[in-house]
Design goal:
Helix content: 25-40%
Keywords: Calcium, Cytoplasm, Endoplasmic reticulum, Glycoprotein, Hydrolase, Lipid degradation, Lipid metabolism, Membrane, Metal-binding, Nucleus, Repeat, Transducer
Membrane topology: Peripheral membrane protein
Radius of gyration: 28 Å
Enzyme class: hydrolase
Pfam families: C2, EF-hand_like, PH, PI-PLC-X, PI-PLC-Y
Strand order of the largest sheet: 15-14-13-16-17-20-21-22-23-12-24
Largest sheet: 11 strands, mixed
Subcellular location: Cytoplasm; Endoplasmic reticulum; Membrane; Nucleus
Oligomer: single chain
Number of helices: 24
């Protein structure tokens, strides 16, 4: 196949270009960029800086022309044909670049797209070869294309391997076939192979292989049926796996699998802990909206904290790209009659409402076709509300749902399937569909303000900057700048009110009132503390209420650092729209990504059947009373880890990893167990320890695997994690492909485990 390095655009990038890196109207500096020989890694340095440089590989897309806020603001100065933006995976900020000529910009735009395509289409073997090649380049200090023993020692440290001198030398000598005292790239690959031989995989292979060399079709079949619990389909699967993963043609002809093929299968999608069938869109999408958990974001316009952070259109793009289906827009009167979006009464920057709506139009349905709910926190005067209504209608056009689907006042909400490709406005409404008109409705226009006052949460904070923010927050309040809770009574614009159909915001008046009076299209918002209290005092009522009506939960007003609350407690009572600060990485977003990683990452997950039945008696405090209650035993043998990333970039530091497994679910299921730590080995630590759990409400449980660097003196450092729904786990020998704090992949880091799930005797 043609090497990417021979492509003319890629050659331009490898030769290098001076591009201007632009951060703001005043910050525009030339930097030297080039693509490294591996055809995947970009390198750049400032012309003047000494030896320091940066590299990156995580590019996800290239946008041409003025497609970022910064480049748009500089449109006069730099024409569109020399501008482009690199967009990264995860939460890393974009890179805005300006080339010296349109030709150069074109070469980079097309070239980077080819590199992205190559990275996406590499198979596991190519990816590993690539990884080995990268290490070789890093360690070949004198760039002679060879590696002597001293360079190999340094490399092992860089790779997180602690190994005694003799053992390393023995492997080195085995690989140094030409006895020249140094390894060339092919020999280094051999060295790497000896280094990464997986004894624990070999042992499993030996258990099922008659001759110790290969697994015959029936041997592989019995492995799949006994260990991997594949049941009926084992024989069909065995042949499929050989066709798909066996690298040796000879073995393929015999319908057999070699150790190499076996290892490749175990590291593949099929060998993953997450059942690939559950990754796809597979749930019934024809039930009322209230029957789904919906991926939801809070203060979607923010990239950082709520007091001085940037408000940005990029924040909307990032949330929508992650499958978020409910975004929040905080609107305030703008100075020239144009409403603006920002966190009111704070130092966060402002963006135009109409730009937010244009961004929504462009990105709403890239990750998922299912409906997006636009949650409006409206603080505008009558005139600017009408301007908002005009923007919504003109920009979104028929994407905005403005009338009942069949003209009938509904008894239940429509389904995600019926609402595909539609944006639903959630806001106050002068009256319900088909109700009589009251023109003079005066109301608190914004949901979150209503409850900001009864929010007495204190922020758990360890971060000194969060402390300063709290002080600033209190200071602003003392100075009479009221941060959250100016209760303005305000008229609602008829034009805006008319755009609300199925998501009418109302003040919650208790479960009793809801049962007798409420309509399915009425929904309320609760702060986390209010929701927690309701869940604790009236769990079953809350579950029943949520079978018919939507509920939105948002973080308490004191979380000015944009920290998150645990969403699991809200899902436990069936709340659908559990809004989190997507901009803040950590456990809570890991749980959100874990729950919504199933069903095609479409942002909608069907609730368990006991949360969809209006007469359900389920309460999270009493799972035992559920019809068909069957607790399960989950047993996880943590066998080994592979190529864990370094936490500390300091030369000699190597991690001491331990694995912790945490269960999130109903209160009875909350649990955590951990292995002991292994000293000085992040490369191929072996634990062979078994952790046991009992799960009482399997349909609600999430399982989180976290790897940490043990530190006896201070808190352990985070190394990587993976979270998934209990119902999506594949039993048997599985790999868990770890994610960074940001939720992006960090190949080839993984854990190797053996999982068994059985009924509790």
């Amino acid at each position: 196949s043609a090497r990417i390095q021979d492509d003319p655009d890629v050659r331009v990038m490898m030769a290098g270009s001076t591009l201007r890196k632009v951060k703001s109207k005043s910050w525009k500096k030339p930097r030297h960029f080039r693509l490294l020989e591996d055809g995947l890694t970009f390198w750049y340095k400032s012309r003047w800086a000494g030896r320091s440089h940066s590299t990156f590989t995580e590019v996800e897309a290239v946008r041409e022309g003025h497609q970022s806020e910064v480049l748009l603001s500089l449109a006069e100065e730099f024409p569109a044909d020399v501008c482009f933006t690199l967009v990264f995976r995860g939460r890393q900020g974009n890179l805005d670049l300006v080339a010296e000529s349109p030709e150069e910009a074109k070469a980079w735009i097309q070239g980077v797209r080819k590199v992205i395509h190559k990275a996406q289409t590499m198979d596991a073997k190519e990816r590993l070869d690539q990884w080995v090649w990268d290490w070789f380049q890093k360690a070949d200090k004198n760039k002679d294309g060879k590696m002597n023993f001293k360079e190999v020692r340094t490399l092992l440290k860089m790779m997180n391997v602690e190994m005694n001198e003799e053992h390393a030398l023995r492997l080195f000598t085995m690989a140094d076939k030409s006895e020249s005292g140094s390894l060339e790239i092919e020999q280094f690959v051999h060295f790497y192979k000896i280094l990464t031989q997986r004894d624990e995989v070999w042992k499993v292979f030996q258990d099922y292989s008659g001759d110790g060399e290969k697994l015959l079709l029936d041997e592989l079949e019995s492995f799949l049926s006994i260990e991997q619990q594949e049941g009926e389909q084992s024989s069909r699967r065995a042949q499929e796996l050989i066709d798909r993963y066996e690298p040796s043609e000879t073995a393929k002809k015999q319908s057999a699998m070699s150790l190499d093929g076996f290892q490749i299968y175990l590291c593949s999608r099929e060998g993953s802990v997450f059942n690939p069938e559950h990754r796809e869109l597979h749930q019934d999408m024809n039930q009322p909206l209230s029957h789904y958990f919906i991926s939801s974001s809070h203060n979607t316009y923010l990239l950082e904290d709520q007091l001085r952070g940037q408000s940005s259109l990029e924040a909307y793009i990032q949330a929508l790209k992650r499958g978020c289906r409910c975004v929040e827009v905080d609107c305030w009167d703008g100075s020239d009659g144009e409403p603006v979006v920002y966190h009111g009464h704070t130092l966060t920057s402002k963006i135009l409402f109409r730009d937010v709506i244009s961004t929504l139009k462009e990105y709403a349905f890239k990750a998922s076709d299912f409906p997006v709910i636009l949650s409006l926190e409206n603080h505008c005067c009558l005139e600017q509300q009408t301007v908002m209504a005009q923007h919504l209608s003109q920009i979104l056009g028929d994407v905005l749902l403005t009338s009942l689907l069949d003209g009938q006042v509904p008894q239940q909400l429509p389904s995600p399937q019926e609402l595909r490709g539609k944006v639903l406005l959630k806001a106050k409404k002068i009256n319900g569909p088909g109700d009589c008109v009251d023109e003079t409705l005066m109301d608190e226009v914004s949901d979150e303000e209503e409850t900001a006052n009864d929010d007495a949460e204190s922020l758990p904070t360890e971060d000194p900057s969060a402390e300063c923010l709290k002080v600033l927050y209190i200071h602003l309040m003392l100075c009479g700048v009221c941060v959250e809770s100016h209760k303005s009574k305000c008229k609602l614009s008829r034009e805006l009110s008319d755009l609300v159909v199925y998501c009418k915001s109302v003040h919650f008046q208790g479960f009793e009132h809801a049962r007798s009076q409420a309509k399915c299209y009425e929904m309320s918002s609760f702060s986390e503390s209010k929701a927690k209290k309701l869940a604790k005092d009236a769990g079953t009522d809350f579950v029943q209420y949520n079978t018919r009506q939507l509920t939105r939960i948002y973080p308490g007003g004191r979380r000015t650092d944009s920290s998150n609350y645990n969403p699991q407690e809200m899902w436990n009572v069936g709340c659908q729209i559990v809004a989190l600060n997507f901009q803040t990485a950590g456990l809570e977003m890991d749980l959100n990504d874990g729950l919504f990683g199933q069903n095609g990452c479409c942002g909608y997950v069907l609730k368990p059947d006991f949360m969809r039945d209006a007469n359900t008696q389920f309460g999270p405090e009493k799972p035992k009373e559920l019809r068909g209650y069957k607790p399960l035993r989950l047993s996880i043998q943590v066998i080994s880890g592979q190529q864990l990333p370094k936490v500390n970039q300091k030369e000699g530091s190597i991690v001491d990893p331990l694995v912790r497994v945490e269960i999130y679910g109903v209160p009875q299921d909350q649990a955590k167990e951990e292995t002991s730590h292994i000293n000085n080995n992040g490369f191929n630590p072996v634990w062979n320890e078994t952790l046991n759990f009992v799960i009482h409400a399997p349909d609600l449980a999430l399982v989180r695997f976290e790897v940490e660097d043990y530190d006896k003196a201070s808190r352990n450092d985070f190394i990587g994690q993976f979270t998934l729904p209990f119902t999506c786990i594949q039993a048997g020998y599985r790999h868990i492909h770890l994610l960074s704090k940001d939720g992006t992949a960090i190949p080839p880091s993984s854990l190797f485990v053996n999982i068994s799930i059985s009924e509790l005797e």
